[in-house]
Amino acid sequence: MLLGQMIPQIEKEILIEAPIDVVWRVVTEPDQIEQWFCPDAELDGRPGGPGRMAFEHGYTYFLEVVVFEPPSHFAYRWLREQAIKARPENSTLVEFRLQAEAGNTRLRVVESGFDKVDWTDEAKVKYIEENSSGWLFYLGRLRDYAPRSNTAARG
């Protein structure tokens, strides 16, 4: 894949059989994030708030919350180095948009900023390929987990 052919962002959308308030909690609360996304999560849910997500495969991402608007829009920048400030040149933007739909929730995830990061073309291509398949995998886990989370919350 050449840079000129590179997709500017990753977009995934799923329908989750759970109400929007449940999906919001599952996407934004660390103890819920640990059930479907990564085994170790920390998140200060307010704009500018820090966070951290450590994955099984050894990567740890450091977050800066950009948007926190319950229950419909959550966004953060993530990067691999903790000591630096997240900027468009060193991080991508991950956005979760939630929309209620007949008692269920439509979730759209967009990871963008590949055209702005100062990585090599090869690094960008590898990252896009890995994260595109990664989002499919993790959103499948989220889709399966959220309805069970809702049952547990009511029980």
Strand-residue fraction? 25-35%
Structural class: alpha+beta
Q: How many separate domains make up the residues?
A: 1
Strand arrangement within the widest β-sheet reads 1-7-6-5-4-3-2
Considering DSSP H and I runs of 4 or more, what fraction of the residues is helical? 25-40%
The total count of strands amounts to: 7
Specify the overall morphology: globular
CATH superfamily membership, which one? START domain
Give the end-to-end Cα distance, rounded to a whole number of Å: 50 Å
Radius of gyration equals: 15 Å
CATH architecture assignment: 2-Layer Sandwich
Mean pLDDT, all residues: 91
CATH topology: Alpha-D-Glucose-1,6-Bisphosphate, Chain A, domain 4
Low-pLDDT segments, ≥5 res:
none
Q: What is the makeup of the main sheet?
A: 7 strands, antiparallel
* Name of the top-level CATH class: Alpha Beta
